[in-house]
Amino acid sequence: xxxxxxxxxxxxxxxxxxxxxxxxxxxxxxxxxxxxxxxxxxxxxxxxxxxxxxxxxxxxxxxxxxxxxxxxxxxxxxxxxxxxxxxxxxxxxxxxxxxxxxxxxxxxxxxxxxxxxxxxxxxxxxxxxxxxxxxxxxxxxxxxxxxxxxxxxxxxxxxxxxxxxxxxxxxxxxxxxxxxxxxxxxxxxxxxxxxxxxxxxxxxxxxxxxxxxxxxxxxxxxxxxxxxxxxxxxxxxxxxxxxxxxxxxxxxxxxxxxxxxxxxxxxxxxxxxxxxxxxxxxxxxxxxxxxxxxxxxxxxxxxxxxxxxxxxxxxxxxxxxxxxxxxxxxxxxxxxxxxxxxxxxxxxxxxxxxxxxxxxxxxxxxxxxxxxxxxxxxxxxxxxxxxxxxxxxxxxxxxxxxxxxxxxxxxxxxxxxxxxxxxxxxxxxxxxxxxxxxxxxxxxxxxxxxxxxxxxxxxxxxxxxxxxxxxxxxxxxxxxxxxxxxxxxxxxxxxxxxxxxxxxxxxxxxxxxxxxxxxxxxxxxxxxxxxxxxxxxxxxxxxxxxxxxxxxxxxxxxxxxxxxxxxxxxxxxxxxxxxxxxxxxxxxxxxxxxxxxxxxxxxxxxxxxxxxxxxxxxxxxxxxxxxxxxxxxxxxxxxxxxxxxxxxxxxxxxxxxxxxxxxxxxxxxxxxxxxxxxxxxxxxxxxxxxxxxxxxxxxxxxxxxxxxxxxxxxxxxxxxxxx
Length: 723
Description:
Shape: globular
Number of helices: 27
Number of strands: 18
Oligomer: single chain
Structural class: alpha+beta
């Protein structure tokens, strides 16, 4: 990240953009105005003299006006009534063999159904309403039937296992075990299929049916068991393709992994200087299409608009969603992702409160950096949280582990360039966050985050909108631990501003069709290694995602020693220089001096072929050529003095037209691999004879980026319907 310029733009407006979601109004805006108005000039002058984040947070927390807000836990709970309605509607669709609609309705029922779990359910197990105890499991079992007919066998087995774990009626268990056995048999998991048939035979004794029907089922199951038990080789084979959910596609880094920066290719190195900060350069020549970075996020947050169809943990599309056990707001793609999402056990009872505040996704990401770890995690690091010189850490030989908390903690935050007004605004947001965090009992345990749910009664968790008042804080009490966490949140909020990345998904307007497709945001994440790349309005790479894991591929050649830039959202092809520079200064606090800005390259719509910059055949120096008055093909290079005949380059340009047409044809047929290869070849042909900007070159880059994006997160846009 480049160093900030000395006099950043007015930071009150900038701070608002970073903290408040302009598209979702909330109460924080008015809360902040009230606190700011109640703060006297003398108080603010005192605040402006404070030097540390903890001092700033303590000061703001102790302001009386900061406590004129009643923080309550608020979230969307379960609804037995809604679950029953969705289940019955799903049954009707399933009866009509409309399995797609049945799957949708059963999934809605699964999300709304109360989940029997924890000590509370064990206590009332004997006297509870059996229908209520088994509703969640029955909804899962019904959904497994729809998944079976849709040939989604992987999800079908998962649903059966989850139903059996959650009080599925014992008189019906034989059905589920038989279904599971058939599935496992299809999947060549013969040992597991045999065990499932044994369970089916065991639970058949509990089934409520006539004797003849029982004998019929028993005979069928015993036939399968005999086949398995007398077979010469009974084992679990590799699951055939199509019967299991494919693993996320994470390509290998070109040239292998960098020893110091394991998320980067060996072709990439990281340097430091006082003007640019840390930045990535080419350790050797990098070609178009090279994979130069793959990285898991240190933390990630899903956009609220995507809660209904993407996993909170990994951002995968949820074909058969698994719900939170307490609320009906969030979904997971699997039981495993739900178990690994300890952050949600903290956020769950206050999720709608946070959303209602109108705070930005940057604030959610800073909050997630805390909630994904128990308090003990941060307390263990407390003595190690000192400032470090980025030059020293860049030049030493230590491995840059992106999962190391200290790597995250030491990302740039430019505290020295912030105004008191900016700090004050952020501190009031942190006061709100800490007050909300206190309602989750996060500070009452130094162990696992899961214990926070002890404070929410099971009865309250079942209400559709659970809002229950808690006492108002007195306002003058804050523990050292709470102040420490507040200081962490304040630092995280500064770090996120400069280091967060958008996580996206490529949306097709129709199956296997690029027409009308576009890249849409899924959320935000922080990648400690990717954050080291500096910006250029002429980016050298495209970011695609597998879930929330980032993959970057180069879209142009980079010579050894040259900067490897990414793009911070401002591309010269779509915005004029003044707008780009203003937005980069406003958000990232630096003045862009990339080649596109220095030479004021035209936007794509304004590009012409009247003047092209060819490459000298000897030294690769630039040769500006007025193609409208091209009388002779020989041009002298100002760098080396040699004459270059550009006829061969002109012929090469003609050949690229045919290559590009071939690539477009493959894109129409949705042959992504062939289109990828042709577009890479085309870009190499163009780069061999021309310098940017060149209309056809950037058109090819755009096509190549679309093909790359389609190889990551992608989906076909569906028409939104009323639930």
